[in-house]
Amino acid sequence: xxxxxxxxxxxxxxxxxxxxxxxxxxxxxxxxxxxxxxxxxxxxxxxxxxxxxxxxxxxxxxxxxxxxxxxxxxxxxxxxxxxxxxxxxxxxxxxxxxxxxxxxxxxxxxxxxxxxxxxxxxxxxxx
Length: 127
Prior knowledge:
Layout: E1 2-3, E2 14-20, E3 26-32, E4 43-48, E5 51-56, E6 60-64, E7 71-73, H1 80-93, H2 101-120
Antiparallel strand pairs: 1-2, 2-3, 4-5, 5-6, 6-7
């Protein structure tokens, strides 16, 4: 993890995280709170097998090199309503976990590794 400034703190809101996956692929998370308020809050870009998908603020999605899909425009929906509906549904059935436990463990390890990387300035392996 790398953050802006000379001595960034653990709770910085201007940082980049580079993740190297076991299969050789990489992921980059940029979290910046210092940009213009008029720019979209969230953006996701996926590059894979000569295709590119770009989701802009959960409203517009564009596809490049994707046969049969060039784009999609929807109303702003971050999935909160569906999420809470699923929670209620699972609780009514007696189930609790919406996300598999091992995935929760992995993302927690990745979060701690990002902070450790910021502190040490190096890579942190997650086992």
